[in-house]
Amino acid sequence: DVPKATEPRGDIEGPRRGSLCDRHCSTINNVHGDLGDLGCHLHRPRVPPGRLAMGWVGHEALGGGSHHLLSPPVLPTALCSPSCCQQHSEEVCESCVVKTTLMAENVVEANKLSNNYKFGFKKWKSHVTERPWEDRSEIVKELYSDLNVIRGSGGSTVTCGNVLYLLLFGWWLSFLYVLVAAMMFITVVGAPYGQLCWDLAGYFLWPFGKVIQKVEVPKSRQVLGGCEAGTEVGTKEESSALLGGPVPRRWRPWCWVNAGYWHHGGTVAWFCLGYPALVLAHGLVCVTSWLLVVLIPVAKLSARTLTRVLLLPPERVLVRRLKMTEVPLEGEVVLCCYRAVNPYYYKYTVDGINVFAVNLLLLVLVTLVLGYVDSHNHLSSSSIKFTLALLSIMPLSYYIGMAIASISAQSNFAVGAVVNATFGSITELTFYITALIKGSREGNRCYAEIVKSALTGTLVGCVLFIPGLCMVIGGIRHQEQRFNSRSAGVSSALLFLSVGGVFAPTLFSKVYGKLVCGECHNVTQNPLGHYLCHNCHFDLMENNGTLYYSHVQPLVYTVSLLLPAAYLIGLFFTLKTHSHIYDIHISDCHMPGHHHSAVVHWSRWRALVILLLSTLCMSACADLATEHISPILTNSTISQYFIGVTVLAMVPELPEIVNGIQFALQNNLSLSIEIGNCIAVQVCMLQIPILVLFTIFYPTNFTLVFSDLHVYASMFSVVLMNYTFMDGKCDYFQGTVLVMVYFILLAVYFFAPSPSGC
């Protein structure tokens, strides 16, 4: 949904600086295509009042040619070669720079796009402000229409989606209208509403290509009981501008009923007998079709029927079938639908929230009610409750992400950094802490091992799976994708540092710990032969735990202090002293017609309230997940390692995966890579130190000593990722390699035995 750029008119906006060079350079740009071969002097011009432009990002940061589009609306600026600049004045040449300009409609969107390139900030694809209506495509505009627009002939209305409507809703909804019509005819006084229901029965059986119109009754033709005064019943003919010919009137026996009596008695009978049943039916249709997303036009059809059509006097409702030769209708068009299914409704948003996230709120509500009301598992099993609680984390993660992005975009740098550092990992930390608390209360070490597996799974998945999947999907559309190798190098260096710090206590325990085995058997029957031992581990509690308490534990606390300090240094390096590695500057380019003030979806206070409520619901869902995970751990034949590194690690990251894929499809692989790297760095430098700090105040079974499998998988993943990102470009083959390695590691975890104590 990218708006088309139009050439600015000189008589309105004045001549743009360097416009002549832009026209020449666009030709050069189409020929050469590669931004990296052209060098020009960078400058930071003043932003004119009333004009807004997002900062531009250098070629490496965006990883694409001059045609690269980052986020709607994104426009490339013109490109100029030295020969082009020599042909024009020095003033024109100053605007010939190698840059790609990120355009934004307002200041808030500009801040959001800028935050996407900042280390430690959550990368967010969706808009946090309302987009100008004129910038939306025709497909998107149709999604928000009220189904009251008459279009020209678009072919046959017999489509698969319309037939699906007939099978799901049309037949029984039409039958219900027939029953209501019969009931209203029996009451006599409600006969006009009976005639209306009879007409609507035919409409809702197949509403496509038909129109419901609100007609105006002329003052000279007074209506008595739904009939025209001074007209002989059964002989009067009415003409329609749509049909262009006379239409015989139906015989209406209720015309002889007293008008006042009919008006009051019929309305009472309608709202007592007919309308409630139709409200239930249309409500069911509306909810069902809304949850199916692609059938949202049917939901709009039902909602508009309840709120408009069924509340009108029956004599003012006219149901017509559209003909091929249409003329303007007399009166207001209330309903006009052409198709029941629209696959583009996955783009539909409600107050800036994607329709899928809105629908999944119902899942969160069901999870909380079922989990806390049915505490004894009378209505559902623990497995179902665990699955629902885990799935409920996804929409809550979406709301937390949008709230963080909204607050950061409307605040200064300091507030944004604090909010991202505080709530950026709240989803994972909530689950980990509740699991450790439950394991401590039950004296079960298995929960601590599950948390370690989830931490390792998040690290490995964000280093291998998320970048690899984005490379594959983005590489299908773009033959080769480029990214900012310098910014990726900063994240890689922090990853090396963090992984080394996290696994330092584990390596220390391997060197100085005593290997203790549960049982050993002599294989060769020779006292000096080989022994086969089982359940071996390094004992850190030898001599009353001297090794652990005197050496390992101080090392753990030292590492937990150094890692957050390194994270802060990384923030200061990338955002303050060396922010130029991201090549984000302010440009004077602007989109013609973009002079709109920012209309945010969520204000800062509203975003803060949603953030706190989502965090509270997240805590409740995490508590339910840990409460009902015990049967799965004890009865499942799958290794607990595998459950931790897959389900518990990657399900909360699904919104981030979707954002990374969307960035990759727009040829902006830099942000896709940074999404995975940022999460992995936060796991090692923030989440693990917070868990260690938590164990100081609330003793648990969590120790910063991982199994050999976790150490080898994490080390190998980080090394492979750094090797892949070395040259600053990639394709789908390299992404396939990363994804295949990730699946191989999952296979290793799947066949690995469960950790000791589980």
Strand content: 5-15%
Approximate shape: elongated
Alpha carbon gap, first and last residue:
51 Å
What topology, given as strand order, has the largest sheet? 2-1-17
Number of helices: 26
Low-pLDDT sequence parts: 1-100, 220-262, 586-595
Tell me the name of the CATH class of the domain at 351-516 and 551-590 and 603-751.
Mainly Alpha
CATH homologous superfamily label of the domain at 351-516 and 551-590 and 603-751: NCX, central ion-binding region
Describe this structure in words.
With 758 residues, this protein is mainly alpha-helical. Among the domains are: 141-216 and 263-345, no CATH class; 351-516 and 551-590 and 603-751, Up-down Bundle (A middle domain of Talin 1). Helices cover 56% and strands 7% of the residues. It is built from 26 helices and 18 strands. The chain has a three-stranded antiparallel beta sheet with strand order 2-1-17. A three-stranded antiparallel beta sheet has the order 8-3-9, with helices on one face. α15 (426-442) runs parallel beside α24. It is elongated and about 105 Å long. The two termini are 51 Å apart. It comes from Brachypteracias leptosomus. The chain crosses the membrane at residues 163-186, 268-298, 353-372, 384-401, 413-434, 454-476, 488-508, 555-575, 732-752. It is a multi-pass membrane protein. Residues 386-503, 607-749 form the Sodium/calcium exchanger membrane region domain. Its main location: membrane.
